[in-house]
Amino acid sequence: MKIAVLIPCHNEAPTIGQVVRDFRAAAPQADIYVYDNNSSDRTAEAAREAGVAPRFEPRQGKGNVVRRMFADVEADVYVLVDGDATYDARSAPEMIRRLTAESLDMVVGKRRPTGAAGAYRAGHEFGNRLLTGVVGWTFGGPFEDMLSGYRALSRRFVKSFPALATGFETETELTVHALSLKLPVAEVDTPYFARPRGSASKLQTYRDGARILASIVKLLKEERPLAFFSAIAAALAAAALVLAVPIFVTYAETGLVPRFPTAIAATGIVILAFLSLASAFILDSVRHGRLETRRLFYLRLPAASGEPP
To answer: How many CB atoms lie within 10 A of CB 294?
Structure first.
């Protein structure tokens, strides 16, 4: 069984050497790949000093790096981890064992802060809980830490994953891909450490949080079009009803329609509601066809089963 450790990096010179050494010790049978995403520091040199020849992705953004890694690297099991030394490499063998022993497609490292100051900022933890809850409510997922950057993935998951995201919303896309295809998944507790001194987070709380939320809305539109456009149709119908009720009351009392422009507006909104409802049914049929195609492509690849070397 071939195992690949994939490490996307942007300005991680202070930590990438430690990450490489930790994973080499924890999973000596694995091949380690470091992808440098336009770093302006010594990330590439630090990777070489640790014994890994870095690869490069010029398009900025973690999602772009993940897409490139998944396309380039051939393996049976993939371990995806950030290069900031906040994740515990010693959890990798258990994640790989769960993936292979139970024939899973994704095992997520559920972060458990070690108690060090700054390991998991309150704002990030709240945002993670909120977004994970939204995805769980929308797609029916079992995850508690959807935004974790530490995952073990099967080959058929990686090679069937469309990887359309460009930034930090790629974790959301990975999760929704698993949930939409109803793939077997699990979570494993893993310690989560504070960044070492000299290392700075690339995550911008409000900007990236907004991008992740927008990604969830986009995925809802694409993966649950019946619910999405039906909700829009219901909102439009309710707005039309609010406008139309006073008109009907006035007509019943006087036989006149004095607010003719309002009546036209209400009629137009009702037409939009029916168009939205029609779109919901049409796009839901299209989604079923796309889902069947993705499922069949996924099933062409073997499951990650057996014992790792």
So the answer is: 16
Residue type at 143 in one-letter notation: F
CATH number, domain 3-223? 3.90.550.10
Mean residue pLDDT of the chain comes to 88
* pLDDT at residue 200 greater than cutoff 70: no
pTM: 0.81
Phi and psi at 164, nearest 5°, equal -100, -20
Distance from C-alpha of 91 to C-alpha of 75, rounded to nearest angstrom: 19
H or E segment to which residue 139 belongs = helix 122-139
Domain boundaries, the chain: 3-223, 225-298
At 255, is the secondary structure helix, strand, or coil? coil
Instruction: With beta carbons less than 8 A apart as the criterion, state whether 80 and 95 touch.
Output: no
Segments of the chain assigned E as strands? 3-9, 31-36, 55-56, 77-80, 106-113, 151-154, 185-192
The pLDDT value recorded for residue 2 is 94
